[in-house]
Amino acid sequence: MKKIIFTIALFFFISIHLLFGQTRPNIPITGVPEQPFVSLREVMLSKTRGWDIGLSIGSAHSLADIGGTRDAARILFFDAQLKATGLHYGAFARYRFSNLFALNVGINYGRIGGADSLSPVTSSRYNRAYFFENDLYELALKTEFYLPKKYLDIPIDIYAYTGIIGFYHDPRLTVPNPETHEPSTFSNFQPAIPFGFGFHYTTQGNFKIGFNVGWRKSFTDYLDGEAPRAGPDNDAYFFNAINLGYYFAPRMRR
């Protein structure tokens, strides 16, 4: 957990340095015609269409039948065990078609896990004593819907997204009595539907820094390698990520 926090913090401080460490001193230049003043806010608001590519790093969390904070699994973020937090990282390319929406394609990796020993002592999960880890490899296509500037006229883009994901996973399950445990059979390739929200800020140097949270609805109950009776619903997981990208302004036609 400490290594994950250190890695994310390092990535964040490097991003801040890239974004704000390239300002130039205000040195007057003689012999150059005076340019019309354009505010920083106007520059930021103008950078809405075109490509940006970047990297992301953050945390990965399981919402499965093993582990959790109560007896039965709960949806969204309320059942995540912070001590079982894994690392998430990825890369993305996004094309902004208009002020209102964009398409984002990305590849992501995340390690999720859970342990019944981290559940409350009063729950039935605690005595079951299962533990699992799972490495997830995603290919994601997401549509991002942006908040119109007329509602929040600031140089920060706020959006929600959904889409389709295909992922490969291979859970590693640890049980108290492996010699009597019969492994489950399931497909390693699965679809998922992401739901999330985020924001990003674009600097004068065309760097973008942002943050997003994304919940993945899966269609399998075997992200933990097992389908116990503790939870009737399919498993899920979510990523939190800091994003650092570079914006490529579209070329103006003459």
Write the layout of secondary structure elements.
Layout: H1 2-20, H2 40-46, E1 50-63, E2 86-96, E3 101-115, H3 124-128, E4 131-146, E5 156-169, E6 172-174, E7 189-202, E8 207-218, E9 236-248
Output the keywords:
single chain, 254 residues, mainly beta, eight-stranded antiparallel beta barrel, 3 helices, 9 strands, elongated
What overall form do the CA principal axes indicate? elongated
Radius of gyration: 22 Å
Low-pLDDT segments: 22-27
The amount of helix comes to 10-25%
Helical stretch count? 3
Roughly what fraction of the amino acids lie in strands? 35-45%
Number of strands: 9
Structural class per helix/strand content? mainly beta
Distance between the termini: 54 Å
Count structural domains: 1
The major β-sheet equals: 8 strands, antiparallel, barrel
Oligomer type: single chain
The overall average pLDDT, rounded, is 83
